[in-house]
Amino acid sequence: MYARGMTCREIQAHLQEIYGVEVSPDLISTVTDGVIDEVRSWQSRPLDPVYPILYLDALQVKVKDQGRISNKAIYLAIGVNISGIKEVLGLWASENEGAKFWLSIITELKNRGVRDIFIACVDGLKGFPEAIETIYPKTQVQLCLVHLMRFSLAYVSFKDRKAVAADLKVIYRAATVEEAEQHLATFAEKWDTRYPSISKSWRANWARVIPMFGFPDDIRRAVYTTNAIESLNMSLRKVIKTRASFPNDEAAFKLLYLALRNIAKKWTMPIPHWGQAMQAFSIIFAGRVPTLDGQSFTQFI
Protein backbone atom coordinates (compact mmCIF):
# COMPACT_ATOMS: atom_id res chain seq x y z
CA MET A 1 0.00 0.00 0.00
CA TYR A 2 2.81 2.39 0.89
CA ALA A 3 4.63 1.59 -2.35
CA ARG A 4 1.50 2.51 -4.30
CA GLY A 5 1.38 5.99 -2.86
CA MET A 6 -0.81 5.69 0.23
CA THR A 7 0.31 7.81 3.17
CA CYS A 8 0.81 6.33 6.63
CA ARG A 9 -2.49 7.86 7.78
CA GLU A 10 -4.30 6.50 4.72
CA ILE A 11 -2.92 3.03 5.46
CA GLN A 12 -4.02 3.42 9.09
CA ALA A 13 -7.57 4.28 7.98
CA HIS A 14 -7.60 1.44 5.43
CA LEU A 15 -6.52 -1.17 7.99
CA GLN A 16 -9.11 0.11 10.45
CA GLU A 17 -11.90 0.11 7.87
CA ILE A 18 -11.17 -3.23 6.17
CA TYR A 19 -9.67 -5.32 8.97
CA GLY A 20 -10.68 -3.52 12.14
CA VAL A 21 -7.01 -3.25 13.11
CA GLU A 22 -5.76 -0.16 14.90
CA VAL A 23 -2.19 0.75 13.96
CA SER A 24 -0.59 4.14 14.54
CA PRO A 25 0.93 6.10 11.64
CA ASP A 26 4.23 6.17 13.58
CA LEU A 27 4.31 2.37 13.70
CA ILE A 28 3.61 2.15 9.95
CA SER A 29 6.43 4.62 9.30
CA THR A 30 8.78 2.60 11.53
CA VAL A 31 7.91 -0.61 9.69
CA THR A 32 8.52 0.97 6.29
CA ASP A 33 11.81 2.41 7.55
CA GLY A 34 13.11 -1.16 7.43
CA VAL A 35 13.52 -0.73 3.69
CA ILE A 36 16.21 1.95 4.09
CA ASP A 37 19.02 -0.61 4.48
CA GLU A 38 17.73 -2.34 1.35
CA VAL A 39 17.81 0.99 -0.50
CA ARG A 40 21.43 1.58 0.51
CA SER A 41 22.44 -1.91 -0.62
CA TRP A 42 20.59 -1.51 -3.92
CA GLN A 43 22.13 1.90 -4.54
CA SER A 44 25.68 0.56 -4.13
CA ARG A 45 25.28 -2.78 -5.93
CA PRO A 46 27.69 -3.66 -8.77
CA LEU A 47 26.40 -2.95 -12.28
CA ASP A 48 26.93 -4.62 -15.65
CA PRO A 49 30.06 -3.65 -17.60
CA VAL A 50 28.08 -2.60 -20.70
CA TYR A 51 24.74 -0.88 -21.25
CA PRO A 52 23.94 -0.29 -24.93
CA ILE A 53 21.36 2.38 -24.04
CA LEU A 54 21.23 4.66 -21.01
CA TYR A 55 18.45 7.14 -20.18
CA LEU A 56 19.12 9.95 -17.70
CA ASP A 57 16.52 12.34 -16.33
CA ALA A 58 15.27 14.06 -13.18
CA LEU A 59 11.87 14.74 -11.65
CA GLN A 60 10.89 17.22 -8.95
CA VAL A 61 9.48 16.40 -5.50
CA LYS A 62 8.64 18.69 -2.58
CA VAL A 63 10.67 18.08 0.58
CA LYS A 64 10.65 19.88 3.94
CA ASP A 65 14.01 21.39 4.72
CA GLN A 66 14.53 23.33 7.98
CA GLY A 67 10.84 24.14 8.22
CA ARG A 68 10.55 25.20 4.59
CA ILE A 69 9.11 23.21 1.70
CA SER A 70 11.39 23.25 -1.32
CA ASN A 71 11.62 21.47 -4.65
CA LYS A 72 14.32 18.86 -4.94
CA ALA A 73 15.55 17.08 -8.03
CA ILE A 74 15.39 13.29 -7.96
CA TYR A 75 17.81 11.90 -10.53
CA LEU A 76 17.12 8.62 -12.32
CA ALA A 77 19.29 6.43 -14.53
CA ILE A 78 17.77 3.59 -16.56
CA GLY A 79 19.98 1.22 -18.50
CA VAL A 80 19.01 -1.26 -21.18
CA ASN A 81 21.37 -4.17 -20.68
CA ILE A 82 22.88 -6.54 -23.22
CA SER A 83 19.83 -8.79 -22.96
CA GLY A 84 17.49 -5.89 -23.76
CA ILE A 85 16.02 -5.72 -20.25
CA LYS A 86 15.44 -2.32 -18.66
CA GLU A 87 17.04 -1.75 -15.27
CA VAL A 88 17.01 1.23 -12.90
CA LEU A 89 20.67 1.79 -12.06
CA GLY A 90 20.22 4.33 -9.32
CA LEU A 91 18.29 7.09 -7.58
CA TRP A 92 19.83 10.33 -6.32
CA ALA A 93 18.65 13.63 -4.81
CA SER A 94 19.97 17.18 -5.11
CA GLU A 95 18.71 20.74 -4.64
CA ASN A 96 18.54 21.42 -8.37
CA GLU A 97 19.23 19.55 -11.58
CA GLY A 98 22.68 20.47 -12.81
CA ALA A 99 25.47 19.17 -15.02
CA LYS A 100 27.93 19.13 -12.09
CA PHE A 101 25.77 16.75 -10.10
CA TRP A 102 25.16 14.60 -13.17
CA LEU A 103 28.94 14.33 -13.53
CA SER A 104 29.14 12.87 -10.01
CA ILE A 105 26.41 10.37 -10.91
CA ILE A 106 28.15 9.29 -14.11
CA THR A 107 31.37 8.89 -12.12
CA GLU A 108 29.55 6.71 -9.60
CA LEU A 109 28.17 4.48 -12.36
CA LYS A 110 31.70 3.92 -13.63
CA ASN A 111 32.94 3.18 -10.12
CA ARG A 112 30.17 0.59 -9.77
CA GLY A 113 31.42 -1.27 -12.82
CA VAL A 114 29.89 0.36 -15.92
CA ARG A 115 32.74 0.42 -18.43
CA ASP A 116 30.90 1.34 -21.60
CA ILE A 117 27.67 2.97 -22.78
CA PHE A 118 26.85 3.09 -26.47
CA ILE A 119 24.05 5.67 -26.55
CA ALA A 120 23.05 8.03 -23.72
CA CYS A 121 19.70 9.83 -24.02
CA VAL A 122 19.51 13.11 -22.09
CA ASP A 123 17.41 16.26 -21.84
CA GLY A 124 18.56 19.68 -23.02
CA LEU A 125 20.32 20.67 -19.79
CA LYS A 126 23.39 22.78 -20.55
CA GLY A 127 26.64 20.93 -19.95
CA PHE A 128 24.94 17.55 -19.56
CA PRO A 129 26.40 15.92 -22.72
CA GLU A 130 29.87 17.17 -21.85
CA ALA A 131 29.58 15.68 -18.35
CA ILE A 132 28.90 12.25 -19.88
CA GLU A 133 31.66 12.57 -22.47
CA THR A 134 34.15 13.45 -19.73
CA ILE A 135 33.73 9.98 -18.24
CA TYR A 136 32.70 8.03 -21.36
CA PRO A 137 34.34 9.78 -24.33
CA LYS A 138 33.18 7.09 -26.79
CA THR A 139 29.51 7.33 -25.83
CA GLN A 140 27.14 8.82 -28.37
CA VAL A 141 25.02 11.42 -26.55
CA GLN A 142 21.55 11.82 -28.02
CA LEU A 143 19.07 14.53 -27.07
CA CYS A 144 15.86 12.90 -25.84
CA LEU A 145 13.23 13.66 -28.45
CA VAL A 146 10.45 13.31 -25.88
CA HIS A 147 11.85 16.30 -23.98
CA LEU A 148 12.31 18.29 -27.18
CA MET A 149 8.77 17.47 -28.32
CA ARG A 150 7.35 18.44 -24.92
CA PHE A 151 9.14 21.78 -25.03
CA SER A 152 8.01 22.32 -28.61
CA LEU A 153 4.35 21.70 -27.81
CA ALA A 154 4.27 23.49 -24.45
CA TYR A 155 2.89 26.75 -25.83
CA VAL A 156 1.06 25.46 -28.90
CA SER A 157 -2.68 26.06 -28.88
CA PHE A 158 -4.85 23.00 -28.45
CA LYS A 159 -6.28 23.22 -31.98
CA ASP A 160 -2.76 23.18 -33.50
CA ARG A 161 -1.08 20.57 -31.29
CA LYS A 162 -1.95 17.54 -33.40
CA ALA A 163 -0.78 19.15 -36.64
CA VAL A 164 2.43 20.54 -35.11
CA ALA A 165 3.25 17.19 -33.52
CA ALA A 166 2.70 15.40 -36.85
CA ASP A 167 5.01 17.81 -38.68
CA LEU A 168 7.71 17.42 -36.01
CA LYS A 169 7.44 13.65 -36.23
CA VAL A 170 8.25 13.87 -39.94
CA ILE A 171 11.52 15.59 -38.99
CA TYR A 172 12.81 13.02 -36.51
CA ARG A 173 11.51 10.09 -38.53
CA ALA A 174 13.48 11.18 -41.60
CA ALA A 175 15.84 8.63 -43.13
CA THR A 176 18.83 10.99 -43.40
CA VAL A 177 20.14 14.23 -41.92
CA GLU A 178 19.62 16.00 -45.24
CA GLU A 179 15.99 14.91 -45.39
CA ALA A 180 15.46 15.96 -41.77
CA GLU A 181 16.95 19.40 -42.46
CA GLN A 182 14.59 19.84 -45.40
CA HIS A 183 11.61 18.88 -43.25
CA LEU A 184 12.75 21.32 -40.56
CA ALA A 185 12.94 24.11 -43.13
CA THR A 186 9.45 23.22 -44.34
CA PHE A 187 8.21 23.21 -40.75
CA ALA A 188 9.68 26.68 -40.16
CA GLU A 189 8.01 28.07 -43.29
CA LYS A 190 4.66 26.71 -42.13
CA TRP A 191 4.73 27.48 -38.40
CA ASP A 192 7.28 30.23 -37.65
CA THR A 193 4.71 33.00 -37.95
CA ARG A 194 2.77 31.50 -35.03
CA TYR A 195 5.40 29.53 -33.11
CA PRO A 196 8.90 30.80 -33.99
CA SER A 197 10.50 29.35 -30.85
CA ILE A 198 9.98 25.76 -32.03
CA SER A 199 12.23 25.73 -35.08
CA LYS A 200 14.68 27.96 -33.19
CA SER A 201 14.90 25.37 -30.41
CA TRP A 202 15.40 22.51 -32.86
CA ARG A 203 18.17 24.37 -34.67
CA ALA A 204 19.87 25.30 -31.39
CA ASN A 205 19.91 21.62 -30.39
CA TRP A 206 20.47 20.20 -33.87
CA ALA A 207 23.98 18.90 -33.16
CA ARG A 208 22.54 16.64 -30.43
CA VAL A 209 19.47 15.66 -32.48
CA ILE A 210 21.18 14.42 -35.65
CA PRO A 211 23.41 11.61 -34.24
CA MET A 212 20.45 9.25 -34.41
CA PHE A 213 20.30 9.63 -38.19
CA GLY A 214 23.64 7.84 -38.33
CA PHE A 215 22.09 4.66 -36.92
CA PRO A 216 20.03 2.04 -38.77
CA ASP A 217 16.30 1.65 -38.14
CA ASP A 218 16.79 -1.25 -35.73
CA ILE A 219 18.75 0.92 -33.28
CA ARG A 220 16.60 3.99 -33.82
CA ARG A 221 13.49 1.91 -33.12
CA ALA A 222 15.02 0.49 -29.95
CA VAL A 223 15.81 3.97 -28.63
CA TYR A 224 12.49 5.55 -29.67
CA THR A 225 10.03 2.84 -28.75
CA THR A 226 11.28 2.10 -25.24
CA ASN A 227 10.67 5.71 -24.14
CA ALA A 228 11.80 4.27 -20.82
CA ILE A 229 12.49 7.30 -18.68
CA GLU A 230 9.26 9.09 -19.58
CA SER A 231 7.17 6.01 -18.91
CA LEU A 232 8.90 5.51 -15.56
CA ASN A 233 8.47 9.14 -14.53
CA MET A 234 4.78 8.94 -15.31
CA SER A 235 4.40 5.90 -13.07
CA LEU A 236 6.35 7.57 -10.26
CA ARG A 237 4.30 10.77 -10.49
CA LYS A 238 1.14 8.73 -9.99
CA VAL A 239 2.64 7.42 -6.75
CA ILE A 240 3.80 10.78 -5.36
CA LYS A 241 0.91 12.99 -6.54
CA THR A 242 -1.02 12.46 -3.30
CA ARG A 243 1.91 13.73 -1.21
CA ALA A 244 1.92 17.48 -0.58
CA SER A 245 5.54 17.09 0.53
CA PHE A 246 7.99 14.65 2.13
CA PRO A 247 9.41 15.26 5.61
CA ASN A 248 12.96 14.59 4.37
CA ASP A 249 15.01 13.10 1.52
CA GLU A 250 14.98 9.67 3.13
CA ALA A 251 11.18 9.53 3.11
CA ALA A 252 11.11 10.41 -0.60
CA PHE A 253 13.75 7.77 -1.36
CA LYS A 254 11.86 5.16 0.62
CA LEU A 255 8.63 5.64 -1.31
CA LEU A 256 10.26 6.00 -4.72
CA TYR A 257 12.42 2.93 -4.21
CA LEU A 258 9.43 0.79 -3.27
CA ALA A 259 7.54 2.12 -6.28
CA LEU A 260 10.50 1.38 -8.55
CA ARG A 261 10.71 -2.13 -7.18
CA ASN A 262 7.07 -2.74 -8.08
CA ILE A 263 7.46 -1.23 -11.55
CA ALA A 264 10.62 -3.27 -12.28
CA LYS A 265 8.75 -6.51 -11.63
CA LYS A 266 7.12 -6.02 -15.04
CA TRP A 267 10.47 -5.63 -16.81
CA THR A 268 10.98 -9.30 -17.56
CA MET A 269 11.11 -9.28 -21.37
CA PRO A 270 13.54 -7.62 -23.79
CA ILE A 271 12.33 -4.48 -25.50
CA PRO A 272 10.77 -5.11 -28.96
CA HIS A 273 13.13 -6.04 -31.82
CA TRP A 274 16.11 -6.21 -29.46
CA GLY A 275 17.79 -9.03 -31.36
CA GLN A 276 17.97 -6.94 -34.54
CA ALA A 277 19.18 -3.93 -32.56
CA MET A 278 22.01 -5.95 -30.99
CA GLN A 279 23.11 -7.19 -34.40
CA ALA A 280 23.40 -3.56 -35.50
CA PHE A 281 25.19 -2.62 -32.27
CA SER A 282 27.73 -5.42 -32.80
CA ILE A 283 28.60 -4.01 -36.23
CA ILE A 284 28.64 -0.29 -35.39
CA PHE A 285 30.35 -0.75 -32.02
CA ALA A 286 32.60 -3.62 -33.07
CA GLY A 287 34.95 -4.72 -30.32
CA ARG A 288 32.83 -3.09 -27.62
CA VAL A 289 30.05 -5.67 -27.38
CA PRO A 290 30.68 -8.38 -24.77
CA THR A 291 31.19 -11.97 -25.87
CA LEU A 292 28.31 -14.41 -25.72
CA ASP A 293 29.56 -16.06 -22.53
CA GLY A 294 29.41 -12.65 -20.81
CA GLN A 295 32.84 -13.15 -19.28
CA SER A 296 35.33 -11.59 -21.66
CA PHE A 297 35.25 -7.83 -22.23
CA THR A 298 37.58 -5.47 -24.02
CA GLN A 299 38.85 -2.54 -21.98
CA PHE A 300 37.20 0.42 -23.67
CA ILE A 301 37.65 3.41 -21.45
**Spatial strand sequence of the major β-sheet:** 3-2-1-4-5
Biggest beta sheet summary: 5 strands, mixed
Q: Can you write the helix and strand succession as a string?
A: HHHEEEHEHEHHHHHHHHH
Quote the beta fraction. 15-25%
What share of residues is helical?
40-55%
Q: Name the overall outline.
A: globular
Oligomeric nature of the chains: single chain
Q: How many helix segments?
A: 14
Class by alpha and beta content? alpha/beta
- Secondary structure tally: strands: 5
- Runs in which pLDDT lies below 50 for 5 or more consecutive residues are 1-6, 11-21, 294-301
Average pLDDT rating: 81
Key features?
single chain, 301 residues, alpha/beta, 14 helices, globular, disordered N terminus
Description of the molecule:
There is one protein chain. The chain is α/β, with parallel strands linked by helices and 301 residues long. The protein is 50% helix and 16% strand. Strands 3-2-1-4-5 form a 5-stranded mixed β-sheet, with helices on both faces. β2 and β3 form a beta hairpin. The protein is globular and about 55 Å long. The N terminus and C terminus are likely disordered.
